[in-house]
Amino acid sequence: MPEQPEQQAPPVQRLRVRYAKRGRLRFTSHRDFSRAFERAVFRARVPMAYSSGFNPHPRISYAGAAPTGSASEAEYLEIALKEVVDPAAIHALLDEALPPGLDVLEVVESPGGSLADRLEASRWAIDLIPPAGPDEAAARDAVAQLLAAESVTVERMTKKGLREMDCRAAVLRLDVVPAERPGTVRLDLLLRHGVPAIRPDDVLRGLAQVSGLDAGTAPLMTRLAQGPLVDGDGADDAVPSIGDPLSHAG
Prior knowledge:
Helix 4 (about 135-150) packs across helix 5 (about 200-210). By secondary structure, the protein is of the alpha+beta class. The longest helix is centred in the first third of the chain and has 14 residues, at about 30-45. The protein is elongated, with a radius of gyration of 20 Å. Strands 1, 2, 3, 4, 5, 8, 9 and 10 form an 8-stranded mixed beta sheet that branches. It has a two-stranded antiparallel sheet with strand order 6-7. It has a two-stranded antiparallel sheet with strand order 11-12. It has helices spanning about 30-45, 85-95, 115-120, 135-150, 200-210; strands at about 15-20, 60-65, 70-80, 100-110, 120-130, 155-160, 160-165, 170-175, 185-190, 220-225, 230, 240.
C-alpha cells in the first residue's frame, strides 16, 4: 500500500498584508516576488501553516498583483499561521526580511471572507514624463475624447495570443491632475477590475487610439490604492471611490 502524505493541521490564524513595490523593485514579476516572500517568511521564522500532500507549501494567498514594471503602494496577500501571533510582530519580521523596495505597510487580522472579492477597483497615478510625453492641453483633450466614447477597443498580447478588449468600460474616472514633478503630466485613473483585467497601459493605448496622444517611452505607473468600491455621496460625487480592503466593514 503506498505511503500516504502527512496531513497538516488547519490554520489557527489568518493575517492580511499590505505591501509596496517601489523604485527598481517595480520590475519584480509576481513569480519573483512570491519566491522572495516565501524566502522571507522562512528567514523570519514566521509560524506558517502548510498545505497537506507530498509537497507541502506555506499557505499564502496572493490577490490583485500589479503588472510588472509598475510601482504600487497597495499590494495585498494573506498568510495562514499555525500559531496565534501579534500582527505587529509579523509586520516587523517581514519588513526586516524583505529587500528595500518591497516594503510591508500594514498587517492585520483577517476579517474573514475572500480578500480577492474585496479588490474591486484600483486607483492609479500615471506620470507622462517630458520630453517625450505630451503637454497638459493635449492630455486633457485626449482624456475628454476617451470619456466621451461609448467603447474603445485596444489590443494586448497575452499568453493565449493577441486579445481585443474594451478599455473604456473599465474606466470609472480619468482626470489630468497636478503632478509632483515640474513639467510632468499626471493622469489620475480609477479602474474597475474585471475579466479581462484592464491595465493602465491599456488605457494609454486607448488614449492614443482616440486622439493620437503619445504617452512617451517610459510613463511611470503607480497604483495608489485598491479595494472595494464605495458609492459617492450625492450628484456632485457620483463616481465611487475606493475603500479599505483590510477593514472589517463590508
